[in-house]
Every structure is written in C-alpha cells, then in structure tokens.
Amino acid sequence: MEDATLVRARDRGDELGAPAVSTATGALLQVVAGALHARAVVEIGTGSGVASLWLLRGMAPDGVLTTIDADVAHHRAAKAAFAEEGVEPQRTRTIARPAADVLPRLADTAYDLVVVTAEPHTLAAYVDAAVRLLRPGGVLALVDALQAGRVVDPAWRDHDTTAVRRVLAALREDERLAPAMVPVGDGVLLAVRRADA
Ligand SMILES: C[S@@+](CC[C@H](N)C(=O)[O-])C[C@H]1O[C@@H](n2cnc3c(N)ncnc32)[C@H](O)[C@@H]1O
Known about the structure:
By secondary structure, the chain is α/β, with parallel strands linked by helices. The protein has a single domain (4-193), classed as Vaccinia Virus protein VP39 (Rossmann fold), CATH 3.40.50. The protein has helices spanning 4-16, 23-35, 50-58, 72-85, 99-102, 127-133, 159-173; strands spanning 40-44, 64-68, 92-95, 111-116, 134-143, 177-182, 188-193. A seven-stranded mixed β-sheet has the order 3-2-1-4-5-7-6, sandwiched between helices. The longest helix has 15 residues, at 159-173.
C-alpha cells in the first residue's frame, strides 16, 4: 500500500513515460537499505523518484542518495516528490547525465547499495562500474531482472532479453559477488559483494 506522496510520484512517472518500480519492489528496496543501515546509496534511473522515496525511507537518517538519470524532466519530477516528502536537500544528490559517464567518477568501495532501474539494453555498459562502487558487504540490486519472465524463457531472443541474460550470467560468474534472484515484481537480482573481494 502506497501513501499519497508515492502515488503522486508514480502518476508523474506514468505521465513522463518513466514507469516506477512496483510497490513490492519498493518495499524490498526499503528493507535492503534498512538492513544495511545504508548511509551511501547510488540509484541509476531516478525516473519520478518512487524507488528513491522507498530507499530514503529505509536508509539511515543522515544517509545520502546519489541518484542518476539522463533525463532532466525526470529529475524535476523526482525533486517535486522529495520536496513533498520533506526530504532535507543534503540527503539527495541528483545527477542529470548518462550513468556510463557518471559511474567512473564516483569513489570505489564507498557505497552500501547500488540500485539499477534503468532500461535493460543499457545494463551491460555500467554493471561492472556499479560493482566497483560497492564496499565489501555492499549490495547490488538490479530491478526488473526477469523482464516479465522473458529472461528464463528460451523462446525470447530479442535484444533486451538477451542483453539481460548476458549480464545475469556475468554476475553469476563474478567471484566478487554472491547473487540471488528474488521473485518480487519483475524480479530483483540482489548480489552482495563478498567481504574478501
Ligand atoms: C523505469 S524508469 C525508473 C523508475 C524509477 N526508479 C522509479 O521507481 O520511479 C528508468 C529511468 O532510467 C533512465 N535511464 C535510462 N537509461 C539511462 C542511462 N543510461 N543513464 C541514466 N539514466 C537512464 C530513464 O530516463 C528513466 O527515467
């Protein structure tokens, strides 16, 4: 169940063509952020800020969310949601650039949680950079990782589905990570960065 602030943010996302994470996915992200007592989180794909709000609600009260989206109009919508929520300005850092440009400029091993909600065909370009940002024990979350079940159905061979399959296979092989697929929403791949990696 979402409150009025989340519902309004979701409506703005629909108007902008930036569909928000499902309510169940948002709740999962809040739990992960809370369990990590996250103080530094990166989100790729701000959209209208629905997942951002869930994350901020779970994070430590002084935690900072760095949220990246290539589209300035989406950032405007998210900022409206943050204002409505009463989020203190120092708790969010919004960056209006493509993720592949921004991630190399962020500090290595400095983040508790990296959440990716951008479109699947863009994933491969920055997943490796995203993993590099995680501290040992930090978590990577790939939202919509099952693509409505297409990823596990071999009949689907389109570009997006194949790209996501390749990314998931690479994450399974990555010795720095311990991954698990959570069947919430359209699938959320969670992967913890091993303490010895
Ligand atoms: C599905 S929407 C995100 C929904 C949002 N997380 C929410 O819950 O409200 C995907 C967003 O990713 C952004 N995006 C797509 N590719 C990107 C990229 N390569 N770098 C940065 N942002 C990107 C789009 O502009 C869009 O706003």
